[in-house]
Design goal:
206 residues
Length: 206
């Protein structure tokens, strides 16, 4: 039986300075992109959005990858919080209201999981004869090469972000820690459930 670790099968070699370095030394930047409720737009607005997005795609001279990540929202903590509030409630009427509210929330989620969707655009950059950017120790020349490559990647990312903003979308580049969390969550979906703690209605905490 092989003792090979999962990491050996991943293309990612390193993540640094907001850049994903692949084992072939190509680099990637990732933008997190907002969503838009297309169904609520008028027909003219929908057509304008489609036209803008089509124009954006036609303006690209490099490939991009669009990823949708669905993550389950874990509201166990919220329900426990309500239960604790219910038990500590001294006003009998508010205690009954809190219990009713908690049961209402449980009924809502009983039919299935609540999901959160995130949207990402991966922007690539690579060129011939690139050095080993992921080495622990690099020469000044290698570091200069990396900084030049990162600068080119940043220009591409800003071009993509600008095109998406014209479609009515907001974009933000992921930093190093956010990239690590994203890749970790992709390979640990159960452990990466989002803890969801909505505000408790004020009338229940008087």
């Amino acid at each position: 039986m092989s003792n090979a670790s999962t990491q050996q099968f991943l293309e990612v070699q390193d993540i640094k300075e907001g850049v994903v370095v692949l084992k072939n030394n190509a680099i990637r930047g990732i933008l997190m992109v907002s969503s838009v409720n297309f169904a609520l737009k008028s027909e003219d607005e929908q057509n304008a959005t489609i036209y803008q997005f089509q124009s954006f795609l036609n303006s690209l001279d490099f490939l991009i990858q669009i990823t949708i990540q669905s993550r389950r929202l874990n509201i166990t903590g919220y329900l426990d919080k309500l239960k604790d509030l219910e038990e500590k409630q001294e006003n009998e009427l508010l205690k009954v209201q809190t219990a009713g509210y908690r049961e209402f929330i449980q009924e809502i989620i009983s039919g299935g999981s609540i999901m959160s969707k995130n949207f990402f655009v991966t922007v690539p950059f690579s060129f011939i004869n690139i050095p080993n950017f992921a080495k622990t120790k690099t020469s000044n020349s290698d570091d200069d090469q990396f900084q030049r490559a990162k600068s080119q990647l940043w220009q591409r990312m800003e071009f993509v972000a600008s095109g998406l903003r014209r479609c009515g979308l907001k974009c933000v580049p992921l930093n190093t820690s956010e990239l690590i969390e994203l890749y970790w969550s992709l390979h640990h979906p159960e452990e990466a459930e989002v803890g969801y703690y909505p505000e408790i209605p004020p009338e229940l905490i008087k």
